[in-house]
């Protein structure tokens, strides 16, 4: 009957329309996917994997034995900026004294100097030391940066590796380039193994990663790494830490010895690190304390410097989380350059991801830290002298 045929035809028409609509959506989606480069969404396993597999970063063959540190590229060679610039005077050549907390203060950027900085996590240098890194690189310094933990947040080596890639990408951004980085696995005299990365075509820079477990914001660590933390190691609560990259376990004595060896090998003119745990002059609001890993990194670095007789007047201690409560002291091009370099890093770090300058500045407390740069000296932190 006609009625019956019509009733059967209407669903068929709707079905064909639905198929056409689905096909149109699929075509548009495929086109959009192609235009955006099919980037994985931040926070997914695919995101972490894409960061690890970035072809610009060439990892060492895991079957290759680590080389002795003295044979490694951990000590960069300087190409002094004064040669290329015709003898330009370094910052503050007029004799003006830099002020603590002044963002324009010279943090060691004297042409041809060796600058060593030691941090808890990959990105601490970008958040708390910069614009000092930019100043050092652009002044022709030798820059050697050491990261004690992998900043893995209990998520394993892929997370740590992604953050390492981000730091290298940010250093490239600060230098206005995009180059390939290569890894060399290194063993120090203390038995501590490290991953040392250097960029092609620039022998002034090295980044060293020890990949110790991240201690978490409260110092409690993570179940995935058996709650092993740097603060607990320094306090004597743990006999050793197990690096997240599978390297041999690290004792407190071995860690201090490793830092002593690095300082002795590099003979730095200037050292930068976090404010040590227990420093009497530290700016540390109990309601908003610094990260325990930061304080531990500063403490173990200072201990190693004292052991080798390094002049602590040549050390800058950077204010970490507590800078949030201090006045903003960065602005203009200096702030723009710092934030854009951090944005480059954040493309590899799912928890710090920000898409552009504005979103980075509005990224909670992180955006506030980026707008600040506060330095303290040994005399300010220990006004009564070094404790026994």
CATH architecture: 3-Layer(aba) Sandwich
Q: Note the total helix count.
A: 13
Output the helix-strand order: HHEEHEHHEHEEEHHEHEHHHEH
What count of domains describes the coordinates? Answer: 1
CATH topology: Rossmann fold
**How many strands, what sense, and barrel or not for the largest sheet?**
10 strands, mixed
Q: Say which CATH homologous superfamily is assigned.
A: LmbE-like
Look at the structure and give the CATH class: Alpha Beta
Please give the number of β-strands.
Answer: 10
Percent of residues in beta strands: 5-15%
Secondary-structure-derived class: alpha/beta
Keywords: Zinc
InterPro entries: GlcNAc_PI_deacetylase-related, LmbE-like_dom_sf
GO biological process, one term: glycoside metabolic process
Protein name: GlcNAc-PI de-N-acetylase
Q: How is the topology of this model organized?
A:
Elements: H1 2-35, H2 45-52, E1 57-58, E2 67-68, H3 81-84, E3 114-119, H4 124-129, H5 132-138, E4 142-149, H6 157-174, E5 181-187, E6 193-199, E7 205-212, H7 230-234, H8 252-266, E8 270-274, H9 292-307, E9 315-318, H10 332-346, H11 357-361, H12 364-370, E10 375-376, H13 378-381
Parallel strand pairs: 1-5, 2-5, 3-4, 3-8, 4-7, 8-9
Antiparallel strand pairs: 5-6, 6-7, 9-10
Describe the structure.
The protein is of the alpha/beta class. The chain is about 35% helix and about 15% strand. The protein is built from 13 helices and 10 strands. Strands 1, 2, 3, 4, 5, 6, 7, 8, 9 and 10 form a 10-stranded mixed beta sheet that branches. A hairpin with a 5-residue loop joins strand 6 (about 195-200) and strand 7 (about 205-210). The longest helix has about 35 residues, at about 1-35. The chain is globular. One of its GO terms (molecular function) is N-acetylglucosaminylphosphatidylinositol deacetylase activity. InterPro entries: GlcNAc_PI_deacetylase-related, LmbE-like_dom_sf. Pfam families: PIG-L (PF02585).
């Amino acid at each position: 009957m006609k009625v019956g045929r019509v009733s059967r035809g209407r669903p068929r028409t709707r079905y064909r329309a639905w198929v056409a609509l689905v096909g149109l959506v699929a075509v548009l989606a495929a086109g959009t996917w192609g235009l955006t480069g099919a980037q994985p969404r931040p926070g997914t396993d695919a995101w972490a994997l894409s960061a690890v597999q970035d072809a610009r970063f060439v990892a060492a063959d895991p079957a290759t034995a680590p080389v002795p540190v003295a044979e490694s590229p951990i000590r960069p060679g300087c190409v002094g900026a004064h040669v290329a610039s015709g003898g330009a005077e370094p910052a503050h050549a007029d004799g003006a004294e830099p002020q603590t907390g002044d963002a324009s203060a010279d943090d060691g950027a004297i042409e041809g100097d060796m600058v060593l900085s030691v941090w808890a996590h990959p990105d601490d240098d970008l958040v708390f030391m910069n614009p000092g890194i930019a100043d050092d690189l652009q002044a022709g310094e030798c820059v050697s940066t050491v990261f004690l933990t992998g900043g893995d947040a209990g998520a394993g080596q892929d997370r740590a590796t992604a953050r390492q890639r981000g730091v290298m990408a940010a250093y490239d951004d600060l230098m206005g380039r995009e180059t390939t980085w290569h890894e060399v696995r290194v063993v120090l005299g203390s038995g501590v193994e490290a991953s040392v990365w250097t960029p092609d075509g620039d022998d002034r820079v090295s980044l060293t990663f020890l990949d110790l477990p991240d201690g978490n914001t409260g110092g409690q660590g993570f179940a995935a790494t058996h709650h092993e933390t740097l603060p607990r190691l320094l306090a004597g609560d743990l006999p050793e830490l197990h690096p997240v990259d599978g390297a041999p376990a690290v004792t407190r004595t071995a860690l201090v010895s490793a830092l002593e060896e690095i300082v002795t090998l590099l003979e730095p003119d200037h050292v930068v690190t976090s404010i040590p745990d227990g420093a009497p002059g530290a700016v540390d609001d109990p309601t908003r304390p610094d990260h325990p890993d930061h304080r531990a990194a500063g403490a173990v670095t200072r201990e190693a410097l004292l052991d080798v007789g390094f002049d602590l007047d040549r050390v800058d201690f950077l204010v970490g989380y507590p800078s949030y409560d201090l006045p903003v002291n960065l602005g203009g091009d200096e702030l723009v350059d710092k934030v854009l370099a951090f944005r480059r890093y954040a493309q590899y770090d799912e928890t710090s991801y920000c898409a552009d300058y504005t979103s980075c500045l509005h990224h909670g407390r992180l955006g506030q830290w980026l707008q600040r740069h506060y330095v303290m000296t040994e005399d300010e932190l220990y006004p009564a002298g070094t404790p026994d």
